[in-house]
């Protein structure tokens, strides 16, 4: 599998806590990843913990097969923001009037590209599932569909394959391609 390329994160401040496996970026945060882009006020990256349980030579009865020490490519296609332990989850927060904004282009089996833009007060990314959960009166524009929360409690989930799910009060606007000039 070909490497998807690096992820670049720019911010005004950054703090790293190796014991807590955290990386925190604050102020005008921009994430440029080959799979998506994010702008937010604060990004907290929760990194996977290194498995040191078997470091003393004890053999786990559940897994007696030795594992290679070189990291394998993530077969799920989940974006990784850091090599080594990898990314477990990331939380993007808005601390100002500007929402968290996520942009993503997905290519379907026919080669058509769907441009998605998600906005909300907070976005949580789960690396294992690939889900992005938007909260805080979120809205998502995906192709000709626009889903807008009508209540702050509404949650919109975008998953890895480009599907979207809204739970809670919302409205959907479908734009005629001819009208929009898309």
Give an overview in words:
With 182 residues, this protein is mostly beta strands. 2% of the residues lie in helices and 46% in strands. It has one helix at residues 177-180, and strands at 8-10, 13-17, 22-32, 37-47, 87-93, 100-107, 113-120, 122-126, 132-135, 139-142, 145-149, 155-158, 164-167, 170-174. The protein is globular and about 50 Å long.
Shape: globular
Unreliable segments (pLDDT under 50, ≥5 consecutive)? 53-84
The CATH class is: Mainly Beta
Largest sheet: 14 strands, antiparallel
Q: How much helix is in the residues? A: under 10%
Which value, in Å, is the CA radius of gyration? 19 Å
How far the N terminus sits from the C terminus, by CA atoms, comes to 33 Å
Count of separate DSSP helical elements: 1
Report the CATH superfamily: Lipopolysaccharide (LPS) transport protein A like domain
SSE topology string = EEEEEEEEEEEEEEH
Reported by name, the CATH topology is lipopolysaccharide transport protein A fold
Q: Top keywords for this entry?
A:
182 residues; mainly beta; lipopolysaccharide transport protein A fold; 1 helix
Outline the secondary-structure elements.
Layout: E1 8-10, E2 13-17, E3 22-32, E4 37-47, E5 87-93, E6 100-107, E7 113-120, E8 122-126, E9 132-135, E10 139-142, E11 145-149, E12 155-158, E13 164-167, E14 170-174, H1 177-180
Antiparallel strand pairs: 1-3, 2-3, 3-4, 4-5, 4-6, 5-8, 6-7, 7-10, 8-9, 9-12, 10-11, 11-14, 12-13
